[in-house]
Every structure is written in structure tokens, then in C-alpha cells.
Design goal:
The radius of gyration is 14 Å and the shape is globular. With 115 residues, the protein is mostly beta strands. The strands form two sheets. Strands 2, 4, 5, 6, 9, 10 and 11 form a seven-stranded mixed β-sheet that branches. The protein has a four-stranded antiparallel β-sheet with strand order 1-3-8-7, with no helix packed on it.
């Protein structure tokens, strides 16, 4: 059984930084991408950053230059380094491991940017 466990969320002041982690356990077959998504209250879930297994990356325009997605293959973990955080980054952040057959999702971690 595949499980994704996120950590690293919390409360941070504007301009601050956080690093989210998402550790996967279980056997994942035909993985082709990992990603971070977020959902703010009253809004749809949106893609924040995506990392393909060939190394390609995609970022939402709103986070380009501030957020960086990376992975540690040995730990089966994907990270999201978030710098220069803004109040509009406040949301629940979800990680996803995408395979040909199914997308696996984490439970979400709250990120709140406020003074």
C-alpha cells in the first residue's frame, strides 16, 4: 500500500521560508512525475510545482523564482523549498506521485503566511 506523508508546514511571516517534505512508502510502479499542489479556502486546487522523472520541472507563474522542487531518490522523498513567502501563498499544500495507472496524494499540510 502506497502512502505519502507530508511535513514541514506551519506559520511563517511574509518574506520567510519553509521547506515541505513528502516521503513515499510502498511500491510505486511506472512513476512519471511528482508534484506539489495547493488549495486555498474557496479556491480550486492548483499546481504549484512539478518534477518529471526525466528531470523536467514546471512551476506556477506565481511561484517562479521563489519555490524550488527537488527529490531524493534514495529516500523516495520530494521537497518544496519555499522562499520569499507571501500571504497569498497561504493554503493547504498536497504532494502527489503520478503514475500511469493512478495518482497518489498526501494528506495535506497547512502553510500560513501572516504577520
Amino acid at each position: 500500500q502506497v502512502q505519502l506523508v507530508e511535513s514541514g508546514g506551519g506559520l511563517v511571516q511574509p518574506g520567510g521560508s519553509l521547506r515541505l517534505s513528502c516521503a513515499a512508502s510502498g511500491n510505486i510502479f511506472s512513476l512519471y512525475a511528482m508534484g506539489w499542489y495547493r488549495q486555498a479556502p474557496g479556491k480550486q486546487r492548483e499546481l504549484v510545482a512539478r518534477l518529471s522523472t526525466d528531470g523536467g520541472t514546471n512551476y506556477a507563474d506565481s511561484v517562479k523564482g521563489r519555490f524550488t522542487i527537488s527529490r531524493d531518490n534514495a529516500k523516495n522523498t520530494v521537497y518544496l523549498q519555499m522562499n520569499s513567502l507571501k500571504p497569498e501563498d497561504t493554503a493547504v499544500y498536497y504532494c502527489a506521485f503520478q503514475t500511469i495507472q493512478i495518482n497518489y496524494w498526501g494528506q495535506g499540510t497547512q502553510v500560513t503566511v501572516s504577520s
